[in-house]
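quick one, two chains, predict together pls
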Amino acid sequence: MTVQTVRDVEFGEDLPVFDPDTTLDNVIRFTEAAGWRGPRFTDHEAARKEGLPGALVPGIMSQGFLCAMIHRWAPPARIVEVDTIFRAPVIVDQAYHINGVVTDIDEDAGRVEVDLTVTNDKGETRVFGTAKVDLPTAGT
Amino acid sequence: MILDLHTHSIKSDDGRAKVENYCQWIRTRELPIDGFVLTEHRQFDLESDYSGLAGEFGLTILKGAEVETEYGHVLVFGVTEPLMQEFDFGNIHLPLARVIEACESHGAVPVPCHPGRKRVGMSAHLEEHGVPEGVRIVEIYNGGSRDNEDQVAQDMARDLGYLGIGGSDAHIVSHVGRCATRFPAPITSEQVLVEALNAGEFEAVTFREAG
């Protein structure tokens, strides 16, 4: 069930886990749309020549995944801010999982804060951050 | 008693967690910890008083610091105002020997944290700087560790005869309590924490596998 108003939200609630599509095809589509096409994002070998472990998922694409996850959970949400800290690169063609949990609720203002964590299959945190999200208050 | 000895709040430049939300989270999720120590980056938070939150949630909330040396980052427990006069907590190039000497003079305990991490961990600097004098305890479980960083820390601790603590290194609410330290007796203040650390009466624990 999706969230429609701030009253539908509970402190500590888990957002549905979101497994982003980090395949090379999808990243190429994104970089072309964003005007970010560059070998470090679209070519594993070229990225390795730059000393990277493989082609990178662009940071703004990772942030887009976070926003998509929030909107799947709460379609009417207005995302005020997504604040991310990149601890390790997110690599193209590797599996990642995005977890979100509600860590603060201001029912009067209709604002919710969500912790966001991008982990790999080993459970290691690659990216973490928080989002401030405005939701309709009850009765509006 | 189990305390998370390594957490950051919004007082740290990269911290995003409010202390009240840590408390709510620990109770809502029924985490198996009894409190936490706020170890803000490059500072000691003299102003904040968390005794009200501690009482409201039945948790122990203590304060320490995380400073930066040529051997990487170091937690400091038992910070006092006289200790703060001994070196600049905001200096990112502190000599570890100076930090250890000052801590010993003022009854504080320095603990190199995430020592298995590249660049900001102690093990990465042993070849260049040698084994430092005066280190007795290191963090062997860090909630933010990747790859084999904790294993490197544990191997170093074993080889050099260090005791080990655990801490989550939480910067966001939901990461608190991923790793912690178990003490046989209640820890009621920073002074009691220092005494327990000096006595070697503790054990690092991790809850990461439990999710």
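Residues 59-73 of chain A form the longest helix (15 residues).
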